[in-house]
Amino acid sequence: MLKVENITKYYGDFLAVDNLSFTVKQGEIFGLLGVNGAGKTTTFRMIMGLLDPSSGNITLNGKKIGYDVTDEIGFLTEERSLLTKMTVKEQCLFYGTLKGMKQKDILNRLDELLDRFGISKYKEKKIKELSKGNQQKIQFITAILNNPKLLILDEPFSGLDPFNIELFKNEIVEMSKQGSMIIFSSHRMEHVELFCKKLVVMLRGKSVLEGYLTDIKEQYRKKNILIKGDISKKELEKVDGVLEVIEKADEYEVKIESEEIASKVFETVSKHKKITKFVVEEPSLNEIFIAKVGESYEK
């Protein structure tokens, strides 16, 4: 288990992380989210042992993180950190050696991962000769080469098309099934919703929202209704408790202030004969994020 307990980090007088706590259990995929400057990168660096907290503790399976523990961690940074004049093979040998792996094990694991991501033909190619998407695949491979017990992923889907996002997603889920602890960070909330069951949202170094995603959605009273049929936008907007009606290509998305309003909307809709869709949905994480972070900004 990764335990982050009441960590605080100052840069001079600037408070970057303020009394942050969370845990990530074996096999869990955990979301660490926030706007730019929220303190995520500083938190990652403290977890990696690259920065010491000003106060608080971070332990991995009961041990303070130091050089004897970092070999069990993988980290994919948001920025490109590849040495572009090296070949893919040279790059992975370099990273694997830094993680204490034997050359034979590095090459066996590399062949396995290159094959899995469909890029075996690039093994002897220089990094600078690869497309942005394939460079991201190599960066991901270097992060998981050592089968880390803890994997930190900062914007892992950058530069990827939907097909390759699915490849990454499958690999991440498989690693969690094998027991890896995974911390996932992205500005794309739909990516977070793919597999993060638990999360923390940071703002100005503090946690402003935390818990299991299902509980967070349940507690957020505002809901959405998707309606398709012969009803007008104006008619829906007249229903008391309807906050907004968004007209999409072939349906309406009706935002309501609480689940209780759904019955009022249904009463209005049921007067029409050609209604082919009426679905009450939980709000997206993106909506909750914007609402919660916006509310905290105003304080």
Features:
299 residues, alpha/beta, Rossmann fold, Alpha-Beta Plaits, 2 domains, 6-stranded mixed sheet, 4-stranded antiparallel sheet, 11 helices, 14 strands, globular
What this model shows, in words?
- The protein has about 300 residues and is of the alpha/beta class.
- It has two domains: about 1-215, 3-Layer(aba) Sandwich (Rossmann fold), CATH 3.40.50; about 220-280, Alpha-Beta Plaits, CATH 3.30.70.920.
- The chain has helices at about 40-45, 65-70, 90-100, 105-115, 130-145, 160-175, 190-195, 215-220, 235, 260-270, 285-295, and strands at about 1-10, 15-25, 30-35, 55-60, 65, 75, 150-155, 180-185, 200-205, 205-210, 225-230, 240-245, 250-255, 275-280.
- A hairpin with a 2-residue loop joins strand 9 and strand 10 (about 205-210).
- Helix 3 (about 90-100) packs across helix 4 and helix 3 (about 90-100) packs parallel to helix 5.
- The model has no long low-confidence stretch (mean pLDDT about 90).
